[in-house]
C-alpha cells in the first residue's frame, strides 16, 4: 500500500510516517463532500523532526546534496520530469478530485509542472562558474559565486497545489537546498505524490520532507523555526503576513506571494470588429472563471470602455450563463466546484454584500440546482457577473477567490490606468486594444508584476512571476526564481600577496 493510500503522508528523513500524535484529517471531494482520503494531521513535533532531517541532509559531509555536482542535480530534476509525464493521468485525476478543477486543467497543470522542472534543470546546468569582477588589477582574481541558502520551509496554497509546489521545489533543489514542504491541509494529495516521485528519482534521504497538517501549528512552526534559513509562502494576505512576520523575526530570507485583485482593461477599439469583440469577451470569461475563479491572477475586475459596455456585458453574461458546471471529471464540464464549504460561503457573502452596496446582478449569484454532474452537497456556485460596480465596494477591493466578475467603466485612457492601479495588490493585469501603441503604453503604466496584452493567464517558466504592493515579496520562476534559493558570495583572491605596511610596528 502506497503512502497516498494511507494516513502515512508525512515524509521525514526518508521514511513515510503517520503524525506523532496519531491525528488524521479527512480530505474531502468538493464535488459531493465525501471523503477522498485520510491524511496525517501533523503538528509542531512533526515539523521539528522534518526540519532536523533537512538540516542533517544539508550539513552532511562531502557527499551531501549541496555539494552534489550541478550536472547531477539537473539530471535528477529531469528524471522527475519524466516521472511526472509517466504518471500524468493519475496525477491529473488526483488534482481534479482534490481541488475540484476539471480533469483537463489537471493535465495542463502536470505539463506545466514538468516544464518547470526541466527549465530549472537547464538553467542551473548552463550557468557559468561565477561572475568575474574586474578588480582593476592583474594581481587580483575576483569572482561572485552562488551557494544554496540552506534549509527551506515551503508553504503552498489549495488552488494549485502541485503547480505551486513545483515553483518552489524545482529551484530549491536545483540550487542545492534541502526543504520541508507543508501543502494546504485542504488539497495535499498531489504534493504527497510528488514527494514520492522525488524519492523514486533518487533524491537522498532527508533532502525532501513533507508535513501534512494545518497552518497552525505546522506552518507557524516552520516560519519561526531557528534552523530554517528560507521561508517561502504562497497564499492569502492575512495568513501570509502573519507567517512572514514570524520568519522575519528570525532573520530568515523570505519570499511571499499573497494574491491579487487583477484588472482586465478592455478598450472599445478591441471590439471594433466581430472577431475582436468575440476574442475580448472570450478572454474576459477565461480571465474570470477558469478554475471557478480560484486563481491568484484571475481577472476578476473587468474595466471596460463606456461606449461598448452595454453590448460587452450583455454578451459576457449570456455566455457565462452557458458555462457547464459540474464534477471536474465529468465529460463536457467546463468549471468545477469551489474547494470547500468555507469558500462557498465566502463567495456567497461577497455577492450579498455587493448587491447591498448597489451592484446589478447580470447572471449567476446562486448555487445551481443539483444534476447528473452536480451532486447534491457539492460546493458549486454559478459564474456571476456584477455590473455597476465601483472601487468603494468590498467585492471590488478584496480578493474573492471565486467565480465573481465585477464590471467598472472608463471613458479616457488615464481613467482606465487609474482604475486599474487603484488596488492594494499588484500581481497581474491585462489590456485589450487594437492600437498597439496604446496597449504598450498602458501596459507600461500598470503597476502589476505580470501584464498581458490581448491575452490573459499564460505564463512562462523562464519569466519571473510575482507582484507589487501587497501581492508579496520576491519572485518565482525565471532566473530570479532560482536566485531566491541562493546566496551570493564574493571570493577575492590576491595572486601576489605582500605586506600591507599599514601599521609601522
From TrEMBL:
Residues 16-491 form the Aldehyde dehydrogenase domain. Keywords: NAD, Oxidoreductase. The keyword NAD applies. Pfam families: Aldedh. The active site is at residue 257. Pathway: Amine and polyamine biosynthesis; betaine biosynthesis via choline pathway; betaine from betaine aldehyde: step 1/1. Belongs to the aldehyde dehydrogenase family. This is Betaine-aldehyde dehydrogenase.
Amino acid at each position: 500500500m502506497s503512502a497516498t493510500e494511507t494516513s502515512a503522508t508525512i515524509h521525514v528523513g526518508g521514511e513515510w510516517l503517520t503524525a506523532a500524535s496519531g491525528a488524521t484529517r479527512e480530505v474531502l471531494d468538493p464535488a459531493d463532500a465525501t471523503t477522498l482520503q485520510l491524511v496525517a494531521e501533523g503538528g509542531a513535533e512533526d515539523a521539528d523532526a522534518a526540519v532536523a532531517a533537512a538540516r542533517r541532509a544539508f550539513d552532511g559531509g562531502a557527499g551531501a546534496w549541496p555539494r552534489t555536482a550541478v550536472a547531477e542535480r539537473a539530471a535528477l530534476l529531469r528524471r522527475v520530469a519524466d516521472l511526472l509525464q509517466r504518471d500524468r493521468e493519475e496525477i491529473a485525476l488526483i488534482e481534479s478530485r482534490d481541488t475540484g478543477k476539471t480533469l483537463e486543467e489537471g493535465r495542463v497543470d502536470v505539463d506545466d509542472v514538468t516544464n518547470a522542472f526541466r527549465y530549472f534543470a537547464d538553467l542551473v546546468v548552463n550557468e557559468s562558474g561565477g561572475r568575474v569582477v574586474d578588480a582593476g588589477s592583474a594581481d587580483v582574481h575576483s569572482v561572485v559565486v552562488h551557494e544554496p541558502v540552506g534549509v527551506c520551509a515551503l508553504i503552498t496554497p489549495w488552488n494549485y497545489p502541485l503547480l505551486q509546489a513545483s515553483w518552489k521545489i524545482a529551484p530549491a533543489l536545483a540550487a542545492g537546498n534541502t526543504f520541508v514542504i507543508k501543502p494546504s491541509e485542504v488539497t495535499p494529495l498531489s504534493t504527497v505524490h510528488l514527494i514520492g516521485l522525488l524519492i523514486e528519482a533518487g533524491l537522498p534521504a532527508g533532502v525532501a520532507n513533507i508535513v501534512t497538517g494545518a497552518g497552525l501549528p505546522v506552518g507557524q512552526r516552520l516560519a519561526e523555526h531557528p534552523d530554517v534559513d528560507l521561508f517561502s509562502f504562497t497564499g492569502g494576505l492575512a495568513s501570509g503576513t502573519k507567517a512572514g512576520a514570524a520568519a522575519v523575526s528570525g532573520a530568515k530570507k523570505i519570499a511571499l506571494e499573497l494574491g491579487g485583485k487583477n484588472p482586465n482593461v478592455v478598450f472599445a477599439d478591441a471590439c471594433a470588429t466581430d472577431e475582436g469583440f468575440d476574442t475580448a469577451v472570450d478572454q474576459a470569461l477565461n480571465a474570470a472563471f477558469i478554475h471557478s475563479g480560484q486563481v491568484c491572477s484571475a481577472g476578476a475586475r473587468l474595466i471596460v470602455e463606456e461606449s461598448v459596455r452595454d453590448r460587452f456585458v450583455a454578451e459576457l453574461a449570456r455566455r457565462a450563463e452557458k458555462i457547464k458546471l459540474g464534477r471536474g471529471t465529468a465529460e463536457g464540464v467546463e468549471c468545477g466546484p469551489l474547494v470547500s464549504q468555507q469558500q462557498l460561503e465566502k463567495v456567497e457573502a461577497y455577492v450579498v454584500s455587493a448587491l447591498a452596496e448597489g451592484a446589478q446582478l447580470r447572471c449567476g449569484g446562486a448555487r445551481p440546482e443539483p444534476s447528473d454532474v452536480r451532486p447534491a452537497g457539492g460546493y458549486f456556485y454559478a459564474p456571476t457577473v456584477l455590473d455597476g460596480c465601483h472601487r468603494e465596494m468590498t467585492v471590488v477591493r478584496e480578493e474573492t477567490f471565486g467565480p465573481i466578475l465585477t464590471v467598472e467603466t472608463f471613458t479616457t485612457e488615464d481613467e482606465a490606468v487609474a482604475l486599474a492601479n487603484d488596488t492594494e495588490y499588484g500581481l497581474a493585469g491585462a489590456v485589450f486594444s487594437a492600437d498597439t501603441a496604446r496597449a504598450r503604453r498602458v501596459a507600461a503604466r500598470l503597476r502589476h508584476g505580470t501584464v498581458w496584452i490581448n491575452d490573459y493567464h499564460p505564463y512562462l517558466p523562464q519569466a519571473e512571476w510575482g507582484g507589487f504592493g501587497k501581492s508579496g515579496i520576491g519572485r518565482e520562476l525565471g532566473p530570479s526564481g532560482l536566485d531566491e534559493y541562493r546566496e551570493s558570495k564574493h571570493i577575492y583572491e590576491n595572486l601576489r600577496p605582500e605586506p600591507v605596511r599599514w601599521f609601522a610596528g
